[in-house]
Amino acid sequence: MKLINALNDFLWNCPLLFLLMGTHLFFTMKLRVPQRHIGKALRLSVTPERGTDKTSPNLSAFGALATTLAATLGTGNIIGVSTAVALGGPGAVFWCWLTGLLGMATSYAECYLSVLFREKNKENLYVGGPMYVLKNGLHNKPLARFYAFCTVCAAFGVGCTTQANSLTQTTSSTWGLSPHLVGMAAAVVVGMVILGGIRSIGNLCMKIVPALGLLYIGSCIFLLFLNRDVLFPALGVIAEHALMPHAVLGGITGYSLKHAARYGIARGLFTNEAGIGTSAIAAASSGSESPSRQAYVSMTAVFWDTVVMCFLSGLVIVANMLKHPESIAHVNETGLTDAAFAYLPFGGNLFLSLALTAFALTTLIGWSYFGEKAFCFLWGEQNLNVYRLLYIVMIYIGAVIPLNVVWECTDLINALMILPNVISLFALQRRIK
């Protein structure tokens, strides 16, 4: 654990943050600022593609987007932003937002290459992702297998055990439910969905994820309306602390520019996963024949996840700190969002608990697909039920065990996934249109 902690502290404090932000900046300029087409991308995400086969077993473009959002929207947008503000000060909100804004270009590049180099399996379904880009684009099978192995490990870690544990912590603190009972119930519910395959996963995500996201966004906007007298001061505090952090209300300390940037950027990267490459796995499952079109659609996942939801969460927290400084005097680093939502007039904390529970379940479902495709890449479709059974069992195990070891190992696995993915992006940059 000491070795893993030391590696994570080294990698996530400077090298990976510079690498990923550099990658985001490079592809923003290389692709002539694809972010300027966000309006077009949002329109394409809800517009059926002409000429596509509606009876195809592959996902629609929107289904692939919903599956990506299912995996990325979750506790990181709520608890993660609270932690970033607590440890990095209000300026972390700006750095998190900037990471999402620039990360859309990297997401476009990942998803474009994934659609370009995908394959069809025995069931005539498209499969792809960075492992197929490394195999078919760079012709480097060892690196492709390494990425796929890390993805399977990450699926059992960040996608499974950590989300299951967050689910039981929320249900135990709010309703006093037994972690064993919640773990078994979550395993059954998720198992019923993932055993139905990608169509089952996509259909559920298309129904639940947009509704969850809009409910949470609407609640944030309502809170900002209630605190409208401090809205512009809150924006000013975020901007000021982004470059000149210092002590703020309630004992929350900004420490330094390094802390503000480190926690803001890291939180943005963890929530939208641009640079890690997992969203490209869902993008490749789309029936869309145009790499550019699907890349635009998939790029909007980063927009919704970080540019919108993380920013709104952070703004709600900072506005509450200015309006009700007494509410955060004795909360821990994960409680700033709870403190803000307590001022909703219709049971804010109950709503937040329900949202966290629902987001954790959708993340469990979305990440199961990422791990499934990586598992099949390594060990074949014939062993798929072994993976699904292990994933269902790990949901229960994650619900009842302490997770400090899992979190540290997951951070390291994410770091290892970034390196081969970024290598493929730069090596194949000329293929991206």
Structure, described:
- The chain has 433 residues and is an all-alpha fold.
- 75% of the residues lie in helices and 1% in strands.
- The chain has 18 helices and two strands.
- It has a two-stranded antiparallel sheet.
- Strand 1 and strand 2 form a beta hairpin.
- Helix 5 crosses helix 14.
- The protein is globular.
- About 2% of the residues have low confidence.
Which key features would you list for this structure?
single chain; 433 residues; mainly alpha; two-stranded antiparallel sheet; 18 helices; 2 strands; globular
List the secondary-structure elements in sequence, H or E. HHHHHHEEHHHHHHHHHHHH
Principal-axis shape: globular
Main β-sheet, spatial strand arrangement: 1-2
Mean pLDDT figure: 84
**Biggest sheet architecture:** 2 strands, antiparallel
Number of helices: 18
Query: Per DSSP, what share of the residues sits in E-state strands of 2 or more residues?
Result: under 5%
Quote the distance from N terminus to C terminus. Answer: 43 Å
- Alpha-beta content class: mainly alpha
CA radius of gyration: 20 Å
The share of residues in helices is over 70%
| Count of DSSP strands | 2
Low-confidence stretches: 247-254
